[in-house]
Design goal:
The chain is α+β, with helices and mostly antiparallel strands. It contains 3 helices and 5 strands, in the order H-E-E-E-H-H-E-E.
Length: 113
């Protein structure tokens, strides 16, 4: 059994953070190091999947639930437009190996890919 991830510890109340929204299987918090005016994290309650590729292969319904919550959050916290980012691997910027999505919104028009 692996150690609980920081996100599992947040969800379990071991590390303080405000859960701003949740569904049956997913929760959301504010990023502690925001890179946009709106920067939220959408996280599965299970830490079974290390990254988005594992999640897509193992539980596409959970991935769909994450995207649905991201969409809801963008409507509530921004104008409904958002960028959804999944980092996969250390060289791509992933620092927590418990799959999570970054919901970025507001002031992104100059930073398009």
């Amino acid at each position: 059994m692996s150690e609980p991830s920081i996100f599992t510890r947040i969800y379990n109340g071991e590390i303080p953070s405000e859960i701003i929204a949740q569904t049956e299987n997913v929760f959301a918090i504010r990023d502690i190091n925001p890179r946009a005016p709106v920067h939220l994290l959408v996280i599965p309650k299970t830490q079974e999947y290390r990254d988005v590729v594992e999640l897509a292969a193992g539980d596409p319904d959970l991935l769909t639930e994450m995207i649905g919550l991201a969409n809801t959050l963008a409507a509530e916290h921004a104008d409904g437009d958002f960028r959804l980012v999944f980092n996969r691997g250390a060289n791509a910027g992933q620092t927590v190996f418990h799959v999570h999505a970054h919901v970025l919104a507001g002031g992104l028009e100059e930073r398009s890919l």
